[in-house]
Amino acid sequence: MTSLSSQQRTVIQTLLELNYSVRAIARFIKRSPSTVSIEIHQVTPYKAEIAHALALKKRHLRGRHDTLTPAIAVFLNHRIGILKWSPVLIRFFQGIKNAKSITVDRGREFAKYNEIEQKLGIPVYFAHPYSPEERGSNEILNRYVRRFIPKERKIETVSAKELDQINHWINARPMKTLNWQSPRKVFQQFAVFG
Q: Is 1 contained in some domain?
């Protein structure tokens, strides 16, 4: 459901008080009847101010939950090392002057996003669920990974050797967005080794 503005909620309250139907209200504010219906049932009796405060509270909570289980943390740390940001990798991201934020999907591997924010000094944002257009590069990389690891396969069954091979293949392939250079080559050009 697309978020409604405070003004739209006030219009909904006013039209409800005038006994307008859900469909008539939806036409008036140019939204779908289902959006209006869901909105009305959030607060009973409907009050625009309370509904808007509730919506803002829900939006604030969206996508920022620590869901990393101990078993997955161990797997990520020991088998792939995702949560072990090396000093070189941290310096690389800190050296990107235009990087203002990182947008990630809602995978469990980003459950400790606050550590990444702290180490890099830039905010981490989560894309909305079912919004692949917000994370195009990520979706392309997911498609590449799925060539090797189908969705139905459990990540725990993937060996470290397989992960290394997938990692090598992805990082060695030239990409249009990198001016037909490989991610590995670009990383080596800009990383500060010391």
A: no
Q: How far apart are CA 172 and CA 167, in angstroms?
A: 8
CA gap 87, 68 in Å, rounded = 23
Report field, pTM of the whole predicted structure over 0.85: no
List pLDDT tens digits, range 157-178.
888 888 888 888 888 888 777 7
E strands, 10-52, are none
Give the count of beta carbons closer than 10 Å to the beta carbon of residue 144. Answer: 12
Residue, of 46 and 147, whose pLDDT is higher: 46
> Could you tell me the pLDDT band of residue 60, with boundaries at 50, 70 and 90?
low
Number of domains the chain is built from? 2
Residues 29 and 74 grouped into a single domain: no
Q: How many CB atoms lie within 10 A of CB 51?
A: 20
| Distance from the first to the final alpha carbon of the chain | 49
Helix (H, G, I), strand (E, B), or coil: what is residue 86? coil
Do 93 and 44 belong to one domain?
no
- 129 and 95, same domain (yes or no): yes
Angle of CA points 187, 110, 131, to nearest 5°: 95
Q: Select the more confidently predicted residue: 56 or 193.
A: 56
Contact predicate 192/95, CB 8 Å: yes
**Host domain of residue 84:** 70-190
CATH classification at residue 152: 3.30.420
